[in-house]
Design a protein that fits this description.
The structure holds two protein chains of two kinds. Chain A is of the alpha+beta class. Chain A contains twelve helices and 25 strands. Chain B has two domains: 35-69 and 187-257, YycH protein, domain 3-like (Lipocalin), CATH 2.40.128.690; 75-181, TATA-Binding Protein. The chains are: A alpha+beta, B alpha+beta. The interface between A and B is large, with 62 and 52 residues.
């Protein structure tokens, strides 16, 4: 009996110890299992997404995010912005390129003089992206591991090659192609409306399109709606995964354990519909090609309507997307983009807006006259924003509410200028005290260092 | 003895904690992404087959393209009554519908091809049918005795009750016809890409809009009414999916928004075959 009693005691002790150790092990497993909480297995970090996978991710081709946004042709030796309301030239180009294969790539030139000569060569149709993308994203290309970047495509009269140009570095690549036919694109370009005469002017970050005269630009209208907070909470944190909900200064943050957070905007009148999703995840900032690909993954996960969403801007650690209506980017809340994905070593932040341009309203004839780009630049210069500090200039839409209907918005064309790493409308820059702005900027940069 | 009780208590508490933690681990994590749409096409096809859903042999996976279109809301037909000299016509403003009966007998006989030829000749004559040339025969919506034509445009066919011509034939004669007309359409925005027919069917399946034991007969791109805005009707490209119940043989048509793959629920304007 004594022996039995002792044996039972021993088992009880061992059993308790095992139970305690097991619970510690399970707890550690749960807390350290990134796959479970931060969904690393599904996340694209470390470039698990490739170009072909993007094509299969969704019901619609996510590669549409990387369709060029503008096209240019020549009339009497002058470059013009091309526009065809029926044909959509960049879309036609993208369609022609779907089955293309790059057979050879040659670095042609990197001199500014040669680049400017090419920019003004009337024998090419030009298609542009608002910022550089990589060759690997653009076409089936596995010839080498270099991430060649470009933002301008020069289409010659041949179907067997084209030039790609990088506005920042003046680098030109010659791509030999098979399986493409640009004949239809050339035909459309010939019949397109040569809407406005332009010049390509060198700015701090490359060549911007300058409009030589003042032109009337169409004002478009849309019926809009907004996705609810719960839609994004469900989409990003899961239907039953939210572990905490905190409110601070009127802003609510939902968390899924320690890995994922979603900050939703105020529901009151100041609601700017700006959300911030953070995925805490240790890792290196991906290279440029993977930043572009990975950002697409996050855009898809948001569940926004992607019909008009296009790649807009990329910096060394971020990639942004905007809605692009008839080749013109839409800026929200004065100068916000639709989605901005920012990569850091500790987290990925996805700032986005929930607006959905749901139903296009037929054009009613309303236009907005914009001054020539030179005039606008001169106006900003008198206010203290020097031309040398301007990185890019673009015509974009600002969103204005229509008085007749709450959900109706008008997209009013305006100049937008990127300087000191920030996009703002020309009107905003002209109201800015540049001396204070510059000193604040210097102070912030010093603090960051 | 107290020490032993405490040990038992510890054991029970930690075993319960272990069970809870194990359940937490086993429970499948909540997916960040819409994994349903990430599943491979072949897996979904297999799932469909096991649900008794038959698909057409060659369902394309190639994207198409389409426009947002607009048509001005206007009474186009009432002005045309005086030009219809070969029919007795009346117009209902309430339903915007023109109804007409031929003044003289119009014989429609022969095989299907011959019947269609004669019907086309009848409707293309502006003394019989206004804007008749803009209407195109739609076999998927027609039945014997009731021949349906949909309004056609340079952008594609419009599938809506307000753009429909129905010619009724009885005993080899045109009995009468009813007609609605949306007017000329124009593109509201640039050409954009749409989803493929396969993606449309897949969206229906994942949205549980495709019942078990059914057969997808046909998938066709057309335009459907989205809404009315500022005195215009807005149309968008839709994948029209004809589905037959294998048991009852009833055919229904469902619509999928070709831009985003969402089901268009409120549109029941097309009659079943």
């Amino acid at each position: 009996m004594k022996f039995k009693f002792k044996f039972g005691d021993l088992f009880l002790g061992i059993g308790t110890a095992v139970a305690i150790i097991l619970s510690i092990v399970l707890w550690i497993f749960i807390m350290t299992n990134d796959q479970r909480f931060s969904h690393i297995a599904q996340s694209p970090h470390s470039s698990s997404v490739n170009r072909d996978q993007l094509r299969n991710r969704n019901t619609k081709d996510l590669y549409d995010l990387y369709i060029p946004t503008n096209s240019y042709g020549f009339k009497k030796g002058h470059p013009y912005r091309l526009y065809d309301s029926k044909k959509n030239l960049p879309f036609e180009f993208s369609r022609s390129l779907k089955n293309a294969k790059v057979t050879k790539t040659v670095d042609v030139s990197s001199s500014r003089a040669d680049y400017e000569k090419l920019l003004n060569n009337p024998n090419f149709i030009q298609l542009t992206y608002p910022d550089e993308i990589t060759l690997r994203l653009f076409a089936n290309y596995n010839l080498d591991k270099r991430n060649r970047e470009f933002n301008r495509i020069f289409i010659p009269n041949s179907n067997s090659w084209l030039y790609l140009g990088n506005d920042k570095t003046n680098q030109v690549y010659r791509l030999s192609l098979s399986g493409v036919n640009f004949n239809r694109l050339r035909k459309y370009a010939k019949n397109a409306k040569y809407q406005s005469q332009v010049s390509f002017i060198r700015m701090k970050s490359g060549y911007s399109t300058f409009y030589d005269k003042s032109y009337d630009w169409k004002v478009y209208s849309y019926i809009t709606n907004y996705q609810s907070d719960s839609f994004f909470v469900n989409r990003l944190l899961g239907t039953s995964g939210v572990t905490s909900r905190t409110s601070k200064d009127g802003q609510t943050t939902y968390s899924l354990n320690y890995s994922n957070r979603l900050r939703v905007p105020n529901a009151d009148k100041s609601n700017d519909h700006n959300y911030l999703y953070t995925n805490y995840e240790k890792g290196r900032i991906p290279n440029v090609n993977n930043r572009l690909l990975d950002s697409v993954y996050y855009v898809y996960n948001l569940g926004l309507t992607e019909q008009d969403l296009r790649f807009f801007d990329a910096d060394k650690d971020s990639v942004s997307y905007v809605n692009n209506i008839e080749g013109i980017p839409v800026f929200l809340n004065e100068h916000d983009v639709q989605v901005n994905t920012k990569f850091s070593t500790g987290a990925i932040n996805v700032a986005f807006n929930s607006i959905n341009f749901q139903i296009p309203v037929p054009f009613d004839g309303e236009t907005e006259r914009l001054e020539s780009t030179d005039e606008m630049i001169d106006r900003l210069a008198t206010n203290g924003l020097r031309k040398d500090d301007i990185e890019k200039v673009i015509i974009g839409f600002k969103v204005e509410k229509d008085k007749s209907n709450n959900s109706l918005v008008n997209l009013v064309p305006a100049y937008f200028v990127k300087a000191y790493g920030e996009w703002k409308s020309a009107d905003e820059w002209s109201k800015q005290d540049m001396q204070i702005y510059r000193s604040n900027k210097v102070a912030v940069e010093r603090e960051a260092k | 003895m107290d020490h032993k009780k405490i040990e038992w208590l510890f054991l029970i508490v930690f075993v319960l904690i272990d069970i809870y933690l194990a359940i937490e681990i086993v429970r499948s994590p909540v997916s960040l992404s819409n994994t349903a749409s990430n599943s491979s096409s072949s897996n979904i096809k297999l799932e469909m087959r096991s649900d008794g859903i038959d698909l057409p042999d060659h369902l394309s996976t190639t994207q198409e393209s389409g426009y947002y279109l607009a048509a001005k809301n206007k009474d186009y037909l009432s002005d045309k009554l005086s030009t219809l000299t070969q029919v007795n016509a009346s117009y209902s403003k309430a339903t915007s519908t023109l109804t007409a009966t031929p003044k003289n007998q119009v014989t429609i006989k022969g095989d299907q091809k011959q019947i269609l030829k004669e019907l086309n000749m009848f409707k293309d004559d502006s003394k019989n049918v206004p804007f008749g040339m803009q209407f195109k025969y739609e076999p998927n919506m027609s039945s014997s005795g009731s021949y349906i034509f949909v309004q056609n445009s340079e952008y594609g066919s419009i599938y809506d009750n307000s753009a429909l011509l129905t010619i009724n034939v009885k005993n080899g004669l045109i009995e009468n016809y009813t007609m609605t007309y949306m007017g000329p359409v124009s593109s509201v925005r640039e050409l954009q890409s749409t989803i493929s027919p396969w993606h449309a069917v897949r969206s229906m399946y994942t949205d549980r809009e495709l019942a078990n034991n059914s057969r997808v007969l046909k998938v066709k791109l057309g335009y459907s009414k989205l809404t009315d805005v500022r005195g215009s009707t807005i149309l968008l490209p839709t994948w029209m999916v004809w589905i037959q119940n294998k048991t009852t043989k009833n055919t229904t048509v469902k619509r999928v928004n070709a831009f985003n793959g969402q089901m268009i629920q409120n549109n029941t304007s097309i009659s079943d075959k």
